[in-house]
Amino acid sequence: MEEDKGKPGQVQSHQPGKEYKMNPAPAYIKPGYKGNGKLNDKVAIISGGDSGIGRAVAVLFSCEGAKVVIAYLEEEKDAEETKRLAEEQGGQILLIKADLSRKSDCKKVVSETLAKFGQLNIVINNAAQQYVQRQLEDIDEAQLRKTFETNIFSYFFLTQEALPHLKNGDTIINTASVTAYRGKPELIDYSSTKGAIVAFTRSLSTNLASRNIRVNGVAPGPIWTPLIPASFSEEEVSEFGVHVPLGRPGEPSEVAPSYLFLATDEASYITGQFIHPNGGEILNT
């Protein structure tokens, strides 16, 4: 098929990458999508919501009636564009610049969410960074700490701050990765954090089951987000995603519906589970 191709080779020099510099731009919502009010009267926090999968989730949730808080690290231009796109869908958006590897910033995000919207129902832990290193010995202490603090500490901290305000029927959704299940040789520390997210999700789901707070996750495969040109060489970017059964990288718009499903009452009997939008890679997990 014509669409079964990679993306043009390109690189960015800074993590976690900037969506406005990508060519082509990632698709953030399915053309002609019409919301049905599935998240009316709900308030969601999305970490890393300024671009990539986070942007797609923010726009889709807005289409479905949610009020959305986007926590982002530093990508102000991307965050403002996500706000604009979500508001075009009728959304009410609050942008909060925060370093979620710091517990104090997670506390700020939750407190500002409550001050603005008066409640919290959905937590999407999605922020992540990755740094390619070909050998384990090349991962220095600073990189290891930064990867874990961004990719898994932030999930703990934000969830800890949010939990006192979640109630029966509310939900937490964590972003893992296909690399949690089969690894990736040049992303050892990143893959390790994603494995930790799987264990965090499964453990927390059983811990909160008696409170009827559901905890699930999404484990995407190769998705066209700013992390890709910010991580890999031009040649690697041009080949990104072409080796999965569907023959191409996925778009954020193809991942966001997994989060929507898990956030709605349609998933009321699902907790401790992962959805795998990965282009057809069979993981048997």
Automatic annotation (TrEMBL):
InterPro entries given in the database record: NAD(P)-bd_dom_sf (IPR036291), Sc_DH/Rdtase_CS (IPR020904), SDR_fam (IPR002347)
Disordered: annotated span: 1-25
CDD domains: SDR_c1
Pfam families linked: adh_short_C2 (PF13561)
Gene Ontology terms, MF aspect: glucose 1-dehydrogenase [NAD(P)+] activity
Superkingdom as given in the UniProt entry: Bacteria
E.C. numbers: 1.1.1.47
Keywords for this protein: Oxidoreductase
Top EC category: oxidoreductase
Family the UniProt entry places it in: Belongs to the short-chain dehydrogenases/reductases (SDR) family.
Designated name of the protein: Glucose 1-dehydrogenase
Organism this protein belongs to: Echinicola soli
